[in-house]
Amino acid sequence: MATDYYATLGVDRSATPEEIKKAYRRLARQFHPDVNDAPDASEKFKEVSQAYEILSDPQKRQVFDRGGDPTGGQRGGAGFGQGFSFDDIMDAFFGQSGPRGPRSRIQRGQDALLRLEVELAEAAFGVTQELKVDTAVVCEVCDGSGAHEDSAPVVCGTCRGQGAIQHVQRSLLGDIRTARPCPTCQGFGSVIPDPCRECEGEGRVRARRNLTLTIPAGVDHGTRIQLSGEGEIGPGGGPAGDLYVEIQVRRHPVYSRSGDHLECQVTLPMTAAALGTTLDLPSLKADLEEHDGPEGVTVDIEPGTQSGQVVVVRGEGVPRLRGIGAGDLRVTVVVETPGKLDDEQRELLHRLATIRDEQRPEARLGATHRSVFGRMKDAFRAGAGE
């Protein structure tokens, strides 16, 4: 039974070229294998493409209207004749081995990576930033179809919509036939005779666009934030890939970060470390433009604090990215010994040394290690006792 191309496109025999073109574009989008996963979608797409190829050509349409065969009696996808297909053998043993049907012009876009430098406070407590991203976007002229104005892809005349051509090689077993992507349509099964002037048939163009990025509190150097669907638009106006924003944290003049903890170092005079004091350190949160909390952090230095001792302020560190609460602020104390003394200061220190019996202090090699002179004294005392 002869194919009714008008019925395939769902138009009357008196349909205008414009109506035929619109019907084809609607059905092609409906039955495209990348859009429709029905088992017969690919075959219907080929039928629709073949119907449009016939009815969009005035001479072929006239032959068909007169009851003739506009295809010249050729049947696409017929058997290979005598011999056997190498693809059939491979399918029997290993499954599908070669091209099967046309590949889609609509493909997913690639993922994109953007590196963003932020301040330590922005990474620690979160911030919202505006980004300028250069990626591929859908061509607004052709709406991703790649065709100029109201034109549309037509079935490839070389492979007749199969997306591949057959190669025959003689062997002792007979004719071995293999499929290769069609060089004319590059495996798409269709060609665009009139490509879009804006995107040159790609269905996408490069453009700069603005994005709003919300950086959550607690991100660290090297953290990647995924923005789904904000990457490159695919060929043919296909779905976009993802955009990954990699956080790069700038060095801070006061604070450094260790996991969820903030660390800093303060230098204190010897007298302050001995007597104890209270410090007001600048708050890291104060670096944020919209900060409305306290400007400082109070750190209590206990009397007798030694150089190298770490004072911990609970909960004043970095908020945990995937948890509750925050880390700590760790302040390392460095005790500074005065290098220049006037006569009065020297006299005061001598008096202090006399009061503490430290005019000739014994050097201690460790917390529990006795001095050499101490051990010698013990030895003499033991000998005298004997």
TrEMBL record:
It is found in: Cytoplasm. A zinc finger (CR-type) spans 126-208. Binds 2 Zn(2+) ions per monomer. Belongs to the DnaJ family. The J domain is necessary and sufficient to stimulate DnaK ATPase activity. Zinc center 1 plays an important role in the autonomous, DnaK-independent chaperone activity of DnaJ. Zinc center 2 is essential for interaction with DnaK and for DnaJ activity. HAMAP family: DnaJ. Participates actively in the response to hyperosmotic and heat shock by preventing the aggregation of stress-denatured proteins and by disaggregating proteins, also in an autonomous, DnaK-independent fashion. Unfolded proteins bind initially to DnaJ; upon interaction with the DnaJ-bound protein, DnaK hydrolyzes its bound ATP, resulting in the formation of a stable complex. GrpE releases ADP from DnaK; ATP binding to DnaK triggers the release of the substrate protein, thus completing the reaction cycle. This is Chaperone protein DnaJ. The lineage of its organism: Bacteria, Bacillati, Actinomycetota, Actinomycetes, Propionibacteriales.
